[in-house]
Hints:
The protein is mainly alpha-helical and 200 residues long. 73% of the residues lie in helices and 0% in strands. It has two domains: 1-49, Homeodomain-like (Arc Repressor Mutant, subunit A); 58-199, Tetracycline Repressor, domain 2 (Orthogonal Bundle), CATH 1.10.357.10.
Amino acid sequence: xxxxxxxxxxxxxxxxxxxxxxxxxxxxxxxxxxxxxxxxxxxxxxxxxxxxxxxxxxxxxxxxxxxxxxxxxxxxxxxxxxxxxxxxxxxxxxxxxxxxxxxxxxxxxxxxxxxxxxxxxxxxxxxxxxxxxxxxxxxxxxxxxxxxxxxxxxxxxxxxxxxxxxxxxxxxxxxxxxxxxxxxxxxxxxxxxxxxxxxx
Length: 200
């Protein structure tokens, strides 16, 4: 069968992303994917390869339309310190507005798939590193601008913020409560305001 047109492929991959995201990798069958994408099993294999290959493509698609889009948009509109706050605030809002409590496909994959597939684990780690890099470069930029303490440890705080983000996304799946999620983020964001004497 002829390969799907590029436009149809993008739409089909978006549908596959949503299928993996809602069901999880292991619980998603090729039949589930075919039904969600609107194509038969043979067409799916011809166009996208096997389930694992499609999942890797879906992770890339998800990163592009989710974390990468958000980071690029926020960095254009906000000063560095505000960019970090806005990023976490948007994550909380997005989490609370998801009626299915799906969490984050990257975080879900880090917990459910990565332990059993080293290559996928490495790919997921790379996407999460991009988020940590976002925190890192904005902390450094805020230091240069004098809006966060000069003595702040960029590596430690950027890693902490990534951990907070993952915790928020994981908690969303079982207890999507605004007060809880904001209470998780608040102490991490407070690190950006601590006086120099408190950072040692």
